[in-house]
Give the backbone structure.
Amino acid sequence: SQQGEEDPQALSIQEGENATMNCSYKTSINNLQWYRQNSGRGLVHLILIRSNEREKHSGRLRVTLDTSKKSSSLLITASRAADTASYFCATALYNFNKFYFGSGTKLNVKP
Amino acid sequence: SAVISQKPSRDICQRGTSLTIQCQVDSQVTMMFWYRQQPGQSLTLIATANQGSEATYESGFVIDKFPISRPNLTFSTLTVSNLSPEDSSIYLCSVNGGDYPTDTQYFGPGTRLTVL
């Protein structure tokens, strides 16, 4: 991808388990944002974390950011079948007018 | 926040023709971004469009293939020219909810293009 990679590419878990997705990027960023996309549908914004922040929470979501390692993780706790979707990280670059997406993780939560 | 609409929502086109996609935002924004999402893939930035200046294209994307207009602060068009089946994708426009890059990046619903 233009900016970075996500792993795993695919993740299959049982309902109630936690899901962790990782995102790595290449250059200095202003912020990093996570999105969800259900099959064939639009992007849903989940959370924004700024470069001077290390952790943010929103409901069942926890995002961490490590700028020294140029990486972020998204944790979904107590997953539900409705969480089945593709998840993307995206970075707003610090000195350039670019907003790049990672390669994405396909999450399947089995009921 | 920003509310973005796109037209058309989907289209089926013959190879060799062109499709122009419109993007309308409910507020004035300096920068608008155009993306392509090929089947089963992530989003790839095509170009950044500022009002009153030429768009800035990413590596692998050229103006002849993807001409962009940005006539005012709420509207932009992306044309996909000389269509081939490889252009079958979802095309999305995007803006920042505040002053880029500090706020949430919002996306339109996308235009699903199928080229036969």
About this structure: Chain B has no helices and eleven strands.
